[in-house]
Amino acid sequence: MATNKGRLRFSGVFLASAVALATPASAALFGDSELARQTQALQQRVEALDARLAKLETAMQQNSKLLDVQQEVERLKAEVARLRGQAEVQVHQLDTLAKRQSDLYADLDQRVGEMAKAAAPAAAASTAAPGDAASAAAPDAVSESRAYEAALGQFRQGKYEDAIASFKGFLKTYPASTLAANAQYWVGYAYYALKDYKAALAQQQKLVAAYPASPKVPDALLNMATSQIALDDMAGARKTLEQIVAKHPGTNAAALAERRLAVLK
């Protein structure tokens, strides 16, 4: 831009100098009137070039300002996009933490209910016929509950690998337990916590296939969708989330699925 300005200014100066140099030589050829006319014409051309130069300089300054403004707008757009992405990640993390906490409370409520149901028949059996079968059933139920609680305790402490091993051992020892679906869910969730998303997805798919009537199925599907998002399988995640909303309306998992679908669209 500085080079162009210099060239334009040089042109104006050159023309003005030409007018001054031409005056004595032209006087002898054309006379005063003709010389005055030519001088005036040259001066008018110089003035016109000066005006054009001033306009060009103003336009260039304005364009430079517009370019600066445009660059600032683009920078702000990038910053907004970055902040929006961070906000979406934080919302997802909060949803995940809230879901995990609600799962733990729901799991506790279910276990309390199951223990109460198991305690009543055991107490009646021991009162009616205190034989070997009745006395063996109660310790077995207690051992089952303790094994499950120990595995869940490891999960709460962040010992995910230990929790996986313990829950798998629980499933092997107590395959018909009313808490089997829960144990399978926590196996999948522990893999997710370890960021082994493929294993988490496989374990939750196993739950859905083995325990289709379990109330843990919506939660397993939600964890599957979360793993699919982590694996950058957005189409699969949307399909899983839509399945939750369609087949399990009114559940906490369905509400979270709707929120995540809104973010993915």
From TrEMBL:
SUPFAM superfamilies: TPR-like
Coiled coil ranges: 39-93
Domain YbgF trimerisation stretches: 49-121
CC terms in the record's Gene Ontology section: outer membrane-bounded periplasmic space
Keyword Transferase found: no
Annotated Outer membrane lipoprotein BamD-like domain residues: 142-264
Main location: periplasm
Repeat region (TPR), residues: 181-214
Keywords: Cell cycle, Cell division, Coiled coil, Periplasm, Signal, TPR repeat
UniProt cross-references to InterPro entries, sorted A to Z: BamD-like, CpoB, CpoB_C, TPR-like_helical_dom_sf, TPR_rpt, YbgF_tri
GO aspect biological process, one term: protein trimerization
Pfam families: TolA_bind_tri, YfiO
Domain of life: Bacteria
Keyword Ubl conjugation (UniProt): no
Localization per record: Periplasm
Residues annotated as signal peptide: 1-27
Function: Mediates coordination of peptidoglycan synthesis and outer membrane constriction during cell division.
Family to which this protein belongs: Belongs to the CpoB family.
Name of the molecule in the record: Cell division coordinator CpoB
Organism: Thiobacillus denitrificans (strain ATCC 25259 / T1)
